[in-house]
């Protein structure tokens, strides 16, 4: 009887009208705008779609107008006043519904029929140091696949608008848009959150735990600083991490309208971008343009050039090749990245690389992507003949920007609001050189990383770099097969100045290639941290700093020599930041020293570390992703799903097994 009482309470309904249940409805009034030709030639699904459109309330006479699909990564549920009814995973997808609404209103005003669909995204910040990180990079491929399926599942769509902000949702959206080929497409970046008037940015705030343990801050400081780091409710983080870099790359590719990356979320200038993007997309439809007119080998290279000029996140080394593959273009190689980073000067002073740590909103106000492109054009580093989503060439866009009222007003606003000169945020190559700003990405090799690795060289503290621009560090290896144990060692004081932390087994096969930002952030904000290096087959957040070398290949769990390093081995790291050449080698075993060549032989003869194994919490979904991307060429091809290669491997396996 008690069980019935519980159910009665649970399902209690006070409102009598709850049971006044209709069995029929009148239905929409009017007529569909059908013609004999439509009834003879249209598929039944296309006709039934019109019936559903009026069922959802669209005016019958207009349901057959141009259908425009809008895709976003929106998360959470907001009340009309913006307050939360249900939280999103992160600020980056919390406000993008406003952009969708603005774009939809413009489409409707123009007589088009907008549709909206959503593929929300996780937060790399929220999942740092947790098993949630094991789904981060694999999510990108899955989300892109779902978006492509949604695009194809609306056969009547004439164009696609994407809205996204952050680390994996934005690359996934770009990959989906890249696959449109003959269809028009455009991307609206979700912008950035503002920093607090008094407090810390969203990168530094992720170190309150380790700083408290080491007595760097009090409990009260941690509580107050943590409360206000995200000073506004929407947008990507305030630093040039993966989210902000991906926005920059979207604009550099020509997929987003001029001066749209890094706009402050929630502000009128940000919301206007959605309306302007909707107009630009309708203009593409009129011109008969498709995404294949925007994405070319030349525009991919332009994006790599702009990435180098900004000093962007190394995670874009995974995403730009994936976008190129999705567009059916040539996939850039490590050699391409090396050539561009040696050729292109870094021009932007921004968190986390400096030299002055300006937040990303200042980069927007200093002129953002088009301002950087003006400098690059003057030095002949861009192909300005490429088409952009505006329908105009990049050359035409930059000519407009140089003379525009928008440029004058945003740059004046930066000086007025923060007393910062725009040319101190986005510098000329000459000024950047005078201030010692060096290029960003380099690819160290050596007996630990025979297939290569990557480091953001500009992120190394300049005080530990020799006068000739070379970082030299020789020290004992402190080996870990779990990020949690490495973090515990840092907190407990087991890591000392001069050590080289080696974190192995955290690549695609071990964890889905987790980000290890909590380690690099902890070292950055501890007094001795700049004297500690980190080597791993995992990857790093775009906000990571320090002598942190990631994406070491081959990864430990596929037989890579990093998986054979032992505690106490002597590692020598040499990173030439001027010439972008680096090496990392085992040169001793704690008893004797030897040459890098002898170290290679030693590592080859050793057995893998006894604790080396996939993480016990690795999801089967991620194991499948790891296998598919490995068959497709691995992380240096963008961790893509190359269907032809995968089928070839499967067929070869079936033949070998006699299946």
UniProtKB/TrEMBL annotation:
Q: Does the keyword Iron-sulfur apply?
A: yes
InterPro entries assigned to the protein according to its UniProt record, in alphabetical order: Dehydratase_YjhG/YagF (IPR017798), Dihydro-acid_dehy_C (IPR042096), DiOHA_6PGluconate_deHydtase_CS (IPR020558), ILV_EDD_C (IPR056740), ILV_EDD_N (IPR000581), IlvD/EDD_N (IPR037237)
* A Pfam short name: ILV_EDD_C
Keywords, A to Z, come to: 2Fe-2S, Amino-acid biosynthesis, Branched-chain amino acid biosynthesis, Iron, Iron-sulfur, Lyase, Metal-binding
List, for all copies, the residue spans of the domain called Dihydroxy-acid/6-phosphogluconate dehydratase C-terminal.
445-583
Recorded hits in Gene3D superfamilies, A to Z, give:
IlvD/EDD C-terminal domain-like (3.50.30.80)
What are the Dihydroxy-acid/6-phosphogluconate dehydratase N-terminal domain coordinates in residue numbering?
A: 90-395
Claim: Iron-sulfur is one of the keywords in the record: yes
Family listed: Belongs to the IlvD/Edd family.
Looking up NCBIfam families in the UniProt record yields: yjhG_yagF
- This protein is called Dehydratase
């Amino acid at each position: 009887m008690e069980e019935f009482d519980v159910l009665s309470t649970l399902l209690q309904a006070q409102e009598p009208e709850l049971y006044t249940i209709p069995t029929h409805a009148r239905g929409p009034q009017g007529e569909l705008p059908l013609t004999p030709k439509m009834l003879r030639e249209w598929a039944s699904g296309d006709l039934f779609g019109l019936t559903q459109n009026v069922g959802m309330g669209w005016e019958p006479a207009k349901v057959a107008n141009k259908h425009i699909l809008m895709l976003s990564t929106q998360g959470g549920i907001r009340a009309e006043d913006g307050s939360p009814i249900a939280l999103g995973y992160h600020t980056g997808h919390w406000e993008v519904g406003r952009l969708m609404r603005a774009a939809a209103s413009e489409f409707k005003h123009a007589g088009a029929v907008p549709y909206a669909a959503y593929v929300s995204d996780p937060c790399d910040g929220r999942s740092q140091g947790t098993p949630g990180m094991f789904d981060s990079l694999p999510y990108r491929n899955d989300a892109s696949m779902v978006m492509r399926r949604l695009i194809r599942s609306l056969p009547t769509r004439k164009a696609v608008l994407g809205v996204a902000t952050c680390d994996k949702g934005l690359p996934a959206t770009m990959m989906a848009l890249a696959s449109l080929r003959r269809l028009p497409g455009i991307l609206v970046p979700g912008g950035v959150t503002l920093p607090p008037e008094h407090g810390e940015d969203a990168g530094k705030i992720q170190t309150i735990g380790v700083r408290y343990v080491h007595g760097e801050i009090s409990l009260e400081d941690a509580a107050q600083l943590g409360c206000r780091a995200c000073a506004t409710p929407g947008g990507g983080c305030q630093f040039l991490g993966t989210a902000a870099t991906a926005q920059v790359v979207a604009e550099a590719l020509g997929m987003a309208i001029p001066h749209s990356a890094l706009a402050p979320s929630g502000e009128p200038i940000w919301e206007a971008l959605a309306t302007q993007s909707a107009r630009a997309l309708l203009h593409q439809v009129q011109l008969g343009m498709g995404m294949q007119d925007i994405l070319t080998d030349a525009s991919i290279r332009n994006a790599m050039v702009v990435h180098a000029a900004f000093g962007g996140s190394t995670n874009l080394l995974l995403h730009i090749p994936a976008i190129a593959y999705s567009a059916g273009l040539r996939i850039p190689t490590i050699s391409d990245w090396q050539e561009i980073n040696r050729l292109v000067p870094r021009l932007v002073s921004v968190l986390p690389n400096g030299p002055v740590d300006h937040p990303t909103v200042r980069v927007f106000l200093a002129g953002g992507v088009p301002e950087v492109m003006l400098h690059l054009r003057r030095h002949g580093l861009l192909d300005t003949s490429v088409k952009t989503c505006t329908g105009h060439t990049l050359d035409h866009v930059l000519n407009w920007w140089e003379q525009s009222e928008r440029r004058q007003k945003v740059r004046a606003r930066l000086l007025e609001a923060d007393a910062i000169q725009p040319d101190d945020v986005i510098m000329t190559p000459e000024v950047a050189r005078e201030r010692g700003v060096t290029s960003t990405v380099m690819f160290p090799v050596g007996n630990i990383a025979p297939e290569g690795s990557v480091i953001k060289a500009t992120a190394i503290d300049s005080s530990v770099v020799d006068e000739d621009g070379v970082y030299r560090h020789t020290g004992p290896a402190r080996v870990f097969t779990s990020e949690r144990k490495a973090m515990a060692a840092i907190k407990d004081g087991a890591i000392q100045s001069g050590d080289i932390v080696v974190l192995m087994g955290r690549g695609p096969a071990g964890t889905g290639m987790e980000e290890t930002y909590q380690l690099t952030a902890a070292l950055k904000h501890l007094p001795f941290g700049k004297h500690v290096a980190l080597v791993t087959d995992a990857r790093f957040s775009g906000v990571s700093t320090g002598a942190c070398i990631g994406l070491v290949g081959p990864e430990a769990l596929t037989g890579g020599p990093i998986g054979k390093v032992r505690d106490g081995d002597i590692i020598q790291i040499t990173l030439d930041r001027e010439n972008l050449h680096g090496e990392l080698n085992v040169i001793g075993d704690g008893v004797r020293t030897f040459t890098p060549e002898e170290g290679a032989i030693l590592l080859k003869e050793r057995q893998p570390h006894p604790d080396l194994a996939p993480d016990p919490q690795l999801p089967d979904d991620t194991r499948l992703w790891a296998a598919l991307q490995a068959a497709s060429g691995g992380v240096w091809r963008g961790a893509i799903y190359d269907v032809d290669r995968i089928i070839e491997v499967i067929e070869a396996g079936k033949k070998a097994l006699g299946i």
